[in-house]
Specification:
Elements (H helix, E strand, L loop, with lengths): L1 H6 L2 H22 L7 H7 L2 H26 L6 H20 L10 H4 L2 H9 L1 H18 L6
């Protein structure tokens, strides 16, 4: 697959690792609302299925970003409309993933920007929204040609 060939290149693998770690750090920091001492508590109370979905989402976020950067640097890989559409779908998935709380007792960045009813909805359907975000990232990779040979 084209995606694996891209990730074999050291610069794109480094982008994948750094962006995944940065997103993970920002997300976890926002989940504990800046109280670093609560990170261990957050890790212990997160449901196992949300932990797995979070790891998958973070990995796909890094992969999508590195593949998107690869496509931007390739002049004839895909048309400008395809690049723009891929970036927008990946951005939507990342935004939704950033607003979703991984544990029932955790707050997310949505608390700061959204009304209480919206935050309650995001918390109630966090697993479904995680799956939706993962699906959007997979769609982005597919749309950009990452699964082609």
């Amino acid at each position: 697959m084209k995606l694996f060939n891209v990730l074999k290149q050291p610069q794109y693998f480094l982008i994948f690792i750094v962006s995944s770690m940065a997103f993970s750090a920002i997300y976890i920091y926002s989940q504990v609302l800046g109280i670093v001492e609560n990170i261990i508590l957050w890790i212990t109370i997160i449901p196992w299925y949300n932990a797995i979905l979070f790891v998958v989402f973070v990995a796909l976020f890094g992969i999508t970003l590195s593949f998107q950067i690869y496509n931007w640097r390739q002049p004839k890989t895909c048309s400008i409309n395809q690049k723009r559409a891929g970036a927008s779908v990946g951005g939507i998935a990342s935004f939704v993933g950033l607003l979703v709380a991984q544990c029932p007792a955790c707050a997310s960045l949505g608390v700061l920007f959204l009304p209480f009813s919206a935050v309650t909805f995001l918390t109630e359907f966090s697993t479904a929204l995680n799956l939706l975000s993962i699906g959007l990232l997979l769609f982005t990779i597919n749309y950009l040609g990452g699964f082609k040979k």
